[in-house]
């Protein structure tokens, strides 16, 4: 399956926020790896996807109580 890199501007801004969103992102099939750059002012979430769509990632982030916008 094709690997894609998806990027999002988020409101995930600290370690506790990352902990809160982790179970939601881990439930999305097709995410191989993800990370949030909390040092970036836009709190960029980068997702290595092997089938997960941007909409699925956005939905997971929103279910965790955060905002995200695809870049």
TrEMBL record:
<protein>
    <recommendedName>
        <fullName>HMA domain-containing protein</fullName>
    </recommendedName>
</protein>
<dbReference type="InterPro" id="IPR006121">
    <property type="entry name" value="HMA_dom"/>
</dbReference>
<feature type="domain" description="HMA">
    <location>
        <begin position="3"/>
        <end position="69"/>
    </location>
</feature>
<dbReference type="InterPro" id="IPR036163">
    <property type="entry name" value="HMA_dom_sf"/>
</dbReference>
<dbReference type="GO" id="GO:0046872">
    <property type="term" value="F:metal ion binding"/>
</dbReference>
